[in-house]
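User: Fold this; tokens only.

Assistant: Input:
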Amino acid sequence: MRSTTTGMTMLCAAAAAVLLTGCGSDAPKPAADNGKPAASQSAAPVSSAPAAKAGGATHEVTLEVGGTGRTPVMYSGLDSGFEQQTLPWKKSGTAELTATEQKVGYLVSVVPGSITGADGKLQQAPCSITVDGKKVAESDGVTTAKGCSYIIKK
């Protein structure tokens, strides 16, 4: 029985080693430098500016995190970021939706970190999302501790 257990352990270890060895990056290896750009390289600089959103709709969006103190806040939809913030925290801006985003939706979200609650226990900071003056998502950080998210359409 002992040799069967040892054999199975060695087999599992070997299988794990094979699987982990195959978990490399699929990124292409750099081409040899012969003075010319490689086929996957471009001689022209790539712009990081967003594409124009022709025929798009605009919406005023406000992300808010309540509480006191400091906590990390992750947000997306109005730019995106993950930074330590002083509470209360607010970020407002305009979301410009393309025609496709108007059909399938445009996600805005805010996920706050932990704060000390009134009972002295850690809890997620409360958050809310307002779109065009209407509160569309809200979390008190206790009964729903998933942060806030909303998909804007139209």
